[in-house]
Amino acid sequence: MNFSSKLLEDAVNEFSKLPGVGQKTALRLVLHLLNKEQEEVSNFGNAIIRLRQEIKHCTICHNISDQHICEICTANKRDKEVICVVEDTRDVMAVENTGQYFGVYHVLGGLISPMDGIGPSDLFIDSLVQRVATTPVKEVILALSATMEGDTTLFYLYKRLKDFQIPITTIARGIAFGGELEYADEITLGRSIVTRVPYENSLIK
Ligand SMILES: [Zn+2]
């Protein structure tokens, strides 16, 4: 692409680094912003800068948060003794959107994937075991995607947690999660949280 302006070229290059955005789309977005009021574009830029500079991760559940402890972990009405284990923030949002879950979360920050060189120590697994060992917990719900990585992680977590003698449950497999979740799937996800089953049952089948 031949640009008439270095400023234009720089902006297009930055946008085209985003996932799924090619140079043509980047150019369209940049030209769109150029037509906006100065203040609107400043708000746009500031939101991204503040996001990166100020965002925190909850020290209890590792979810993305504005505070050191997130709103879910501090909410009085949430049952702190039920922990739903998920891969990332999108999954927390998906489960929250169902309106069917009233416990707290533990965000792993990924799934075990030997192919990608991601092992248990790369994830927030030790801190989950620590939570279960040091705070009263009456159930751990493993809500991970039905992929090979999800299954590997489920089994590993089960091995790490089973000696604590608390119910370890899982949602129905094959449920769409996080990024791919659409409204119809939210209903299914909500139902599968309500009808979760002991993880041992899924091992026998
Ligand atoms: Zn939290």
Automatic annotation (TrEMBL):
Signal peptide: none annotated. InterPro entries: DNA_Rcmb_RecR, Rcmb_RecR, Rcmb_RecR_Znf, TOPRIM_dom, TOPRIM_RecR. Belongs to the RecR family. The gene is recR. Residues 81-176 form the Toprim domain. This is Recombination protein RecR. May play a role in DNA repair. It seems to be involved in an RecBC-independent recombinational process of DNA repair. It may act with RecF and RecO. One of its GO terms (biological process) is DNA recombination. Keywords: DNA damage, DNA recombination, DNA repair, Metal-binding, Zinc, Zinc-finger. GO terms for molecular function: DNA binding; zinc ion binding. It comes from the Bacteria. A zinc finger (C4-type) spans 58-73. It comes from Pedobacter steynii.
